[in-house]
Amino acid sequence: MSMAAAAAAAASSTMLRASNISVARPVPVTAGQQLIPSGVACCIRTVSGRRAAVARAAAAGDGGAPASALPAVLLFDCDGVLVDTEKDGHRISFNEAFAERELGVSWDVELYGELLKIGGGKERMTAYFNQTGWPAKAPKTDEERKEFIASLHKRKTELFMALIEKKLLPLRPGVQRLIDEALGKAVKVAVCSTSNEKAVSAIVSYLLGPDRGEKITIFAGDVVPRKKPDPAIYILAATTLGVDPQSCVVVEDSTIGLAAAKAAGMKCIVTKSGYTAEEDFETADAVFDCIGDPPEVRFDWDFCANLLQKQYVS
User: Fold this and answer.
1) For residues 270 and 278, what is the distance between their CA atoms, to the nearest angstrom?
2) What pLDDT shows up at residue 109?
3) Bridge partners for 299 per DSSP
4) Contact in structure between 221 and 48 (CB atoms under 8 Å)
5) What is the rounded distance in angstroms from the CA atom of residue 301 to the CA atom of residue 64?
């Protein structure tokens, strides 16, 4: 069984809470509620060879989108978008949790890059152990293994949050600026992530500050039964916030996140991260190396607004 196939069988039911931040409640998603079925092919294509500078100039030349065309919500993925957390954050924390349990498992940089193709930490561990063999200290029954994975992931999250609280992992360039621009236009901002809700809340609260955190809604972890590349989390965000998916702009960093956003019917800007720089983002509405801060701004709020009318590709 492949890791991706094994991941489909992994499930959990625990969702941790955090204070001072608006967090979506887990709700079941039925077939009748899903606006766009999982696996719908992306139909928006990019035009190759155009430069980021051309995209920015074209957006700026339009004089901004009319108010009626402004995005209703700006949605961010977390890991790799807000913070480049994977290599020196989540991976390190997984390995520390494995070492504490004396499991004899360690994920190197290259292996973890492959494992990131599986959405969700618990799903990632389950798929890995199903394919390579469960550690000798792991339980034998499926139900006990599910509890074992949940406990292991809880400890990993605690270790990861310690890194965040010490601010050892900084925000990526331009993230705070773009969020402030959106909030300044009274646009709703949310974070949609497959990561544990407590870890995402810590990133938002500690790195963006509690004042911004109170204005940002978080959809994370097990809030939906199917994780990216399934569009469920983005459909839930649009439904909960009361907006049309076609009026949402998403910032993602991976192909699985891009696939989720496009299948939900949303515009998607990709900001490549350390692990995703070589992935194929053909279906993205725009691709950049980062959001950027002055004097190296790659795109701004006006660019996001113009995506609802036009398509620009770097």
Assistant:
1) 12
2) 94
3) none
4) no
5) 9
Strand partners, 298: none
Active site members: 77, 79
Rounded distance between C-alpha atoms, residue 314 and residue 298, angstroms: 10
Q: Quick one: CA dihedral 134, 138, 141, 147, positive or negative?
A: negative
2 alpha carbon, distance to own chain's centre: 23
Report pTM.
0.74
- Which residue is associated with the tokens 């807000």? 82
Give per-residue pLDDT as tens, 213-223.
999 999 998 89
Q: What is the largest CA-CA distance in the chain?
A: 63
In angstroms, the CA 249 to CA 261 distance is: 9
State residue 221's pLDDT score.
Answer: 86
Give the distance from CA 132 to its chain's centroid.
27
Helix (H) or strand (E) holding 123, with range, is helix 121-132
Assess contact for 52 and 272: CB atoms under 8 A.
Answer: no
Q: What is the CA radius of gyration of the chain?
A: 19
**Tell me: the pLDDT tens digits for 279-310?**
999 999 999 999 999 999 999 999 999 998 76
